[in-house]
Structures are given as C-alpha cells and as structure tokens.
From TrEMBL:
PANTHER family, per the entry: HISTIDINE AMMONIA-LYASE (PTHR10362)
Compartment(s) of residence: Cytoplasm
UniProt-recorded name of the protein: Histidine ammonia-lyase
PROSITE patterns reported for this sequence: PAL_HISTIDASE (PS00488)
Keyword Aminoacyl-tRNA synthetase: no
Organism of this sequence: Microbacterium ulmi
UniProt xrefs under Pfam families: Lyase_aromatic (PF00221)
Amino acid sequence: MPAATSATAVTVGAAPLLPHDVVAVARRDARVALDPDALERVAASRALIEALADDPHPHYGVSTGFGALATTFIAPDRRRQLQASLIRSHAAGTGAEVEREVVRALALLRLQTLATGRTGVRPVVVETYAAMLDAGITPIVREYGSLGCSGDLAPLSHVALAAMGEGPVRVGGVEMAASDALAAASIAPLVLEEKEGLALVNGTDGMLGMLLLALDDLSVLLDTADVAAAMSIESQLGTDAVFAADLMALRPHLGQAASAANLRALLGDSPIVASHKGPEDGRVQDAYSLRCAPQVHGAARDTAAHAGLIAERELAAAIDNPVVTVDGRVQSNGNFHGAPVGYVLDFLAIAVADVASISERRTDRALDPARSHGLAPFLAHEPGVDSGLMIAQYAAAGIVSELKRLAVPASVDSIPSSAMQEDHVSMGWAAGRKLRRAIDGLARVLAIEVLTASRALDLRAPLLPGRATGAVRDLVRSVAGGPGPDRFVSPEIEAVAELVRSGAIADAAAPALAKGHAR
C-alpha cells in the first residue's frame, strides 16, 4: 500500500517489535532508535565470542567454515577473510529486484535480532544497520536465492554486503555503489570479525517481513471485500436478512461475525434493499456468492488472525546459528528453519485466492441479464453496439485463475543443498513472493467488482444506495465515469485499483464499517 514518510521513531532492542513498527519503517520510513540497554547486552555477548576465538578447539562460525565445511578449522589470521568471503559468496541472488519495502523490513528484522544480544556481534554492527535504514540506503536484493532455511541467506547476504561497502544499493530510487552511499551518509563500512558474517545471514527476516506487509494489506483488503460484496448484493437486489446476528451466532466464527456485521451496517439503511423487502419478494434465497460472503470473507479473516499470531511469535524470536544463550553458551540449533512462517504464507495465499474467486462470481452475476434482476446485459449502454464491462470480467477471471495457481503451497517442497548438510528446507521465501503477487491480484479483482457494482447501482436509479455504499460509488465516480457508451476501460480499472490498494474505498465506507465492528 502507498505510504507517506514518517518522522516517528521505532525503538529497537527494548522489547520485540510490533507488526505496525515493521510496517512503519518499511513503508513510511520511520526512523530507528537503538535502546542503550540493548547495546550493553550486545557488548556482553560479544565478549563471549571473543573468548571463544582464542580457544584452540573449533567453534562453528567462530573458528570453522560453514555448512558442509563446518569441520574445517580456520586460523585466526584468516577469520576476517572467512567472514567477508561468506557474505560475498552467499550474495548470490538473481532475477528482478525485490521491492524496497521488503528489503527495509528484512534489514530491520535482522537488526532486531542483532540487538537481542544473542548473536555475538559487536555494537558497531547493530549501529551500522540502524544508520543504513535511517539514511534510506536500500541494498539491491534479487528475487531468487533463498530456500527459507539457514535463514533467507542470499537476501540477507546482499544487505550485509552493502554494509561492508560492496555491491549496489539504491538511495532515493537511484542506483549507486554501496561504498559511495555509505560515504555520503558518513557511515564507515563494516569489517566483519569472528561470527559476525554468520549472524547477519541466519534468519527468517525476509519471509517474516513479507508476512507482516501482507497482513497490513489484508487488513484493508478484507474490509474492502465486505464493501464490494455489499455493493453487489445491493445492486443485484439481494437480501440482507441472511446476515442477521442471531443466524451468525449459530456458527460462532469470529471472522464470519465481523464480516456479517459489516454487511448489516453497510446495507441497513439502503433504499434499494428496502424496496424489495417483505412478502412481495418471491425469491427464497440468493446465490452463494451473495449469501455466503461473510462465511468466505470471515474464514479469510480468521486465517489472517492465525497468521498474525505466528508473526507475533516470530517477532519475539532471536534467530541465529549458533546462538549465544542467556547462560552464556554458544549453541548450534535449528531455529532458522522457516516452516512456521512458510506455512501461514501459503495458508494466506489460499484465503486470498478464495476471496478473489467469490468476488469475481459476484461481478459475473451483475453482467448476466438472466441473473442480475433487471440490469442490462454486461451493464452496456446499448447492448450489441456496446460491450459494457464484459471484458473487465474477463480480466478478473484471468487473475482468479492465476491466484489459484499461486495458492499451490511452496512449503510442501524441499530441495537439499550444501552437500546434503541442509537436506530439508522450507521454501518460505518463495511462499512470501507468491503471496505478494496474489495480494496484488486480489486488489485488482475487488476493484473490478467495485467498478461493476458502482455502475449497477447507478442503473438502479431513481432508487438510491445506502449512505456508505453511495459514498463509495461517488468516490469511484471521481476516477471513473458512470453508465454510457463504451470507452477505454483499462485506465478506470487501474484508477479504482489504486483506490482499493490505498484504503480509500474502505475509508469511504468507514463509518458503516466501524458501526459494524462495534455490534
């Protein structure tokens, strides 16, 4: 979603970050403040690592190689080279650039783990990551490279590489060398010491960042889905009786109750709905795509709530391998495995696909004169000469088909790596990448439904829509024309999609949504 610059500072190290903290830094360029006590913890754990560096016995990541090379002892005079080589070799991403907000989220989340004092880095490493975020230095991270186990290795390595003053970055959208960007911001490039390279790349930060951003998007899109459904139900002469609170209480799912309350509030004052209430309305019940909107939208809400719980737990984690424990041990572990996050990323992709699917079905009903209860075919001005919104529905159908493919879980796959040392991986990064594409698709499908329902509401004149749905229709009219002869449709779809993504559609209906949630 679009975001404005924010001067509000997010404190790192005092307590686990909250989801909105991550979103604020990633999307609104909130500044980062380091908790002084956290820096003291970081210094204390660093002292333990430096003691181990002098130990003649090997310690993984401190005086050994990595992965399948963990049994190779590295002499003290080669350890800086070891850490730098780790970052350079692991910065092996390929493909398109990852979005700025994702890179900022993963850098912030790695910073949070560094600030726990459980990774053994020096305070200067923590300070450098915070300074890069505040300076708006965004390392260029590539689409492919993470298997979601041993952390998001390649994406995090690209960030670490930039902190070393190597590789490309963007500042204000302009690509430049990391060395130049650091120099312009008066940030000294890091020279990594024992354990530090490893600490910078072992984490689920990329997939967790994408999860948090997705949940932020869905908080808007699921409200928008309720608005779109209400507009479709209203314009297709559907009933709101099926959303009654006592009926919802017979199946006490929280998400279903919330969406039904929204629909009651959105439709409760509608003259169109009132025009066909009572015994004179001979229809027994509406089609599933109208009648079951709260059941589908509500299931998606509950799925998002579960994913949010997992995200909050992951935000409280300190993920590294090996990790410096509270009692001072340096212990290998498997906490970098991305399964918990990967599963819910895939789960959300299923929910997103289904919400888009039911939305597209409501759009299709509005365009079919056999099912739209008196509306013109395809809502065309002069059917035959004009095609109306026929192909807009094609676009929605094409997106929904793509979303079904994107709903196939990534986390069921695993390809062994590192000479079979890393023989089961999560593919959580891939799950996050496809969820981002799915959310973009959902926003567009909802936009097409809102555009279609707005025209259908206009065609019900002289009957008027309810206050909230009418406000949304009026907002749509500020970027897209009403009924009339055929015109270039694509710009109108794009404009309404931007209203959906920005939250403007949900905001226009906000009084009714707030009333619905209060019930």
